Amino acid sequence: MSLELQGMGVSRGVAIGRAHILFRNQPDIREYLVDEDNVEQEVNRLQRATEQAKAQLKEIRESIPANAPTDVSSFIDTHILMLQDSSLTKIPMTMIRNRRCNAEWALQLQRDALINVFNEMDDPYLRTRRDDVDHVVNRILRLLDDENAGAQDVNDGRLKGRIIIAEDLTPADTMLMQHQEIGAFVIEHGGATSHTTILARSLGIPAIVGIGSLRRYIQDNELLIIDGETGTLIAGADEASLTEYRQHRSDFQQHIASLNRYKSGPTQTREGKDIILQANADLPEDITAISNTGAQGIGLYRTEFLYMNRTSPPEEEEQLSAYRKVVEGMNNQPVTIRTFDLGADKTVDGGRNLDQATTNPALGLRAIRLCLKQPAMFRTQLRAILRASAFGKIKIMFPMVSTMQELLQAQHLLKQCKFELDQEGLNYDHQIETGAMIEIPASAICAEMFAQKVDFLSIGTNDLIQYTLAIDRIDDHVNYLYDPLHPAVLRLIKMTLDAGKKHNVPVSMCGEMAGDPRFTRLLLALGLDNFSMHPNALLEVKRAIKETDLGLLPLNTLDIMDINDPYDAELFLDEINNAVH
Fold first, then answer.
1. CA–CA distance, 168 with 135 (Å, rounded to integer)
2. 111-121 pLDDT, tens digit each
3. Which residue out of 135, 195, 486, 534 is catalytically annotated?
4. How far is CA 553 from CA 80, 181, 487, 575, in A?
């Protein structure tokens, strides 16, 4: 008898293989008092374990092939940097000295403090960085418990074709398992934006997350079917199901291979309408992957990474170096830099009073509000971006603008920074374009007003959907309500696109909806002609665009904005997608 379990599919592909259940015992952390004479010895024990963890990760990083996706090395580098950060090294050592507690207890207390900070972040991508804290701390804790921990991180070939079943995996785990050619992995925790998930997509490993208590239901060496698109796990499948999924696997592999032919050539619909396809980027290291897809620039360059894992904001020269690296790497293709989209609780790590918790950070001091509340830090970033514009085409985008006053204040500060650079004789693009992100209903409803004051608009669907429907998409209790096809969401998108068209202002979309080929034809019909997405989604969307003839779409396509039943909306979307086949 077969068993079917449902989770969240986060990396497409079908795998059929034997289960390998990974049990990794968590150290039993208890506090005990260290003799005064042994305090420095305890500090040294923590320092030694931290250095061992760092050495293990560096060894893993050195084994990464030169042609591997940039996500691979950047995520390992992130964990190495965390091991060098004072919040995970110096602060626990100070705790040991002040409290005379054991290293494990000090490290756990600091982990809990850092995770509390991340838990209060409303941005889903930044919130899942708590997983990285856990991964790094657990590696140190295992080494404190056993100095030989991690010695199993070797390529012995035992995992080839296996489907890994685990509570959680670190990016380092994922990298090592990819070396051993695992078939797929399924974990009990994790989310759509965790580093492990993003890495699985980059490496092309089918993956499912969020099947709670999974290891209770699966036996080691049991034959499993994994569908990383639908999030379906089947155990004990009959021969008919195995035959069906083997065909699905073959079809998917052929589909992925066929995408390579879309890397070059223009992005046009069948009737010849030009569409702009750009990529989203989080780190300077993403440039190689973006260039390999043939993207027409970067439509969203997130700058938050510069502010994380540190105790003070980055200086102007450090930011200038990072932005210059990106813009020069894009070879005259435009780069849209979003000013820091942080919240009051996460201006920089360690720079927050934990007693000042915000009841609802999603509605609190964040994004452009924080930028204007801390003008010195904001001006530093604006000056760095302006100076980087001397080396290539840069646009500046302000996040989460909700009022005209916010936009005008931001533009005024930018004007002041330009004046300062003129006085100092420093070069920048005097015609640099500025835009606003449409991420909340208020800005979408007032899009016509904003369109008259900016050079471009960009729709951030991730937040727009969440704020419109009042749900958190990574909250398991309500994420079923996250619906890009909700009539309110579609109407706000159409309202923004119409405002841009009326005032001759370009409108792009940089949320996940832009990178989902299921929505490509609908978005084209709504009037979107500028998409920005994760590099891995670009060729799929390009294929959908090139196979679309807008004249063959149903005449009533836009009636989908009047459908209030999610199931009926999905059926109508299928009709739209099948109309040109």
1. 9
2. 888 887 777 66
3. 195
4. 50, 42, 19, 9
Look at the block and give the residue holding tokens 């223009």: 266
Whether the CB-CB separation of 123 and 112 falls below 8 Å is answered with no
Q: What is the DSSP letter of 176?
A: H
Are 489 and 510 in contact by the 8 Å Cβ rule? The answer is: no
- Can you read off the two tokens belonging to residue 13? 């592909």
Q: Is the pLDDT of residue 25 over 70?
A: no
Taking the whole predicted model, whether its pTM rises above 0.90 is answered as no
Neighbours of 478 (CB within 10 A): 13
Condensed to tens digits (0 to 9), the pLDDT of residues 256-276 reads 888 888 888 899 999 999 999
Domain 302-350+363-434, CATH class in plain words: alpha beta
* pLDDT at residue 522, as a whole number: 97
Of 558, 486, 493, 496, which Cα lies nearest the Cα of 522?
A: 558
Q: Are 431 and 437 in contact (CB under 8 A)?
A: no
Q: Where are the domains of the chain?
A: 1-262, 302-350+363-434
Provide the b/e sequence for 70-96 (b: ≥16 CB within 10 Å). Answer: bbbbbbbbbbbebbebebbbebbbebb
Residue carrying structure tokens 């020069």: 328
With b meaning 16 or more CB within 10 Å and e meaning fewer, what string describes 32-42?
Answer: eebeeeebeeb
417 a catalytic residue: no
Q: What's the rounded Cα separation, in Å, for the pair 475 and 464? A: 16
pLDDT single digits (tens) 208-221: 998 988 888 898 89
Q: Which two tokens stand for residue 195?
A: 């580093």
- Please tell me the distance from the alpha carbon of residue 526 to that of residue 275, in angstroms, as a whole number: 13
Highest mean pLDDT among 4-8, 34-38, 367-371, 395-399: 395-399
- Dihedral over Cα of 402, 406, 408, 414: its sign: negative
3-state SS assignment for residue 479:
helix
- DSSP string across 184-244: EEEESS--TTSHHHHHHHHHT--EEE--TTGGGT--TT-EEEEETTTTEEEES--HHHHHH
Is residue 195 annotated as part of the catalytic site, yes or no? Answer: yes
Q: Mind spelling out the 3-state secondary structure of 379-437?
A: HHHHHHHHHHHHHCCEEEEECCCCCHHHHHHHHHHHHHHHHHHHHHCCCCCCCCEEEEE
Task: Check: CB of residue 500 under 8 Å from CB of residue 447.
Answer: yes
User: In what helix (H) or strand (E) does residue 565 lie, and over which residues does it extend?
Assistant: none
Q: pLDDT (tens digit, 9 = 90+) per residue, 520-533?
A: 999 999 999 999 99
CATH 1.10.274.10 fits 1-262, yes or no: yes
Residue linked to tokens 């991690």:
150
Of the candidates 513, 530, 545, 577, the one whose C-alpha atom is nearest the C-alpha of residue 262 is 545
d(CA 577, CA 553): 8
| The pLDDT value given to residue 392 | 96
Q: What are the DSSP calls for 93-152, one per residue?
A: HHHHHHH-B-HHHHHHHHHHHHHHHHHT--SHHHHTTHHHHHHHHHHHHHHHH-TTTTTT
Per annotation, catalytic residue among 101, 371, 417, 510 = 510
